Every structure is written in structure tokens, then in C-alpha cells.
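Input.
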Amino acid sequence: MRRSERCAWCAAARSRRSQTTNQRKALLVTAPAELREQLRTLSATALIATCARLRPAGDIADPEHATKTALRRLARRHQFLSQQISDADAELRTLVTAAAARLIALPGVGTQVAGELLTTAGDNPDRLHPQAAFAHLFGVAPSLPAAVGPNDTGSTAAVTEPPNNALYVVVLGRCRSPRSSAVSSATSHASSTTPCNPSTSGKILPGRLVSP
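Output.
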């Protein structure tokens, strides 16, 4: 349960942080030209630090003052969420390592991914004996019921999506390694195995799970 709660909290915090980043980017597009020129060349990390240190002065009705105030709030919110995520990740890593040290040591498997996989497996331990059951549970079986189709909005698809996304992260990480790319290239010419080219949607489609 503690793993499940921390996985859910981390996912929600990352989502809020992403929203904060998008709001900051949108605000910079409409910012006064002079302020925009001062900030546009900064890296993401430097931009957050700079915006967090802004000291607006003058009339709040002034566009530059209002923009600086909003940027400072967004940057400080981003810093707060980042620190909270870091703390929660450290706690989650302790729990995951104690439960499955070999899993988190695998290439491409980080704390959040391992936590998601363990949470899914922990809720359905009797369904993971054969590989086919694992594939169905995680939404990567070659033949899936209509309820877990890519356009489905039912409850089964909602249950499958988080672990499917976790597998996608693992596959994406392994596809970037030279060894996996070479193996994928060789097998794609010798058989019908799908090459290492995950969808940009953040999901692995049925039958598209790439072996390590």
C-alpha cells in the first residue's frame, strides 16, 4: 500500500510540475519583449532559478511587473514540487529496493517504473504466472479484448494504461542503448519482430513489446 500511495503521489506531482512548466512557457510567449529577451537564452534550470529570484517593483498593473510576479510564483512552485518529488522518490526507492532489488537494478528500470510494476503485480499476483498473463495485464498481448483497445474508455483500459506506460519507459530507455539498437536491427531483418521504435503516444501497442 505504501508503494502504491507513493507511486500515485509522485505521478500526480510530476503532472502538476509539467503543468507549471507549460504555464511558464505560455507566459514567456506573451511577456514584454525586453523581459522575454533577457530570459529566452537561459537553460531550463537557469530559467527556473532566475525567475524564482525575480523582484517585481512598481505598479502591479504594469505588464512587466505582473509578468515577473507570475513567473516568480510559477518558478517557486516548480522548485517546491521538484523537492517534494525528490523526497518521495528517495522514500519509494527504499521500499522498492527492499521488495525487489533485482528489478530496480535492471537497465531502464527506475524508481517510479519499478514501483508501478510492483504495485500492479502486487494487486494481481495470481495472474502473473505465465508470460501471456503478464502481457495481457500490462496491455501488450498480441491479441487483446476490445475493452483494452487503443480507443477504449472503459475501466479495463484505465487499469492497464499505467503499467503499460511503465513498460514503455523501460523499452524507450533500452532502445537508446547501442546494444539494444544493434539487436533490434538484426532481428527486424530476420523476423517479423517489431524494431525498436516506440510510439510517441507514450504507450506500447498490443504485440509491440520489444524484448531486451
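Confidence is low (pLDDT under 50) at residues 146-159, 189-195, 198-212.
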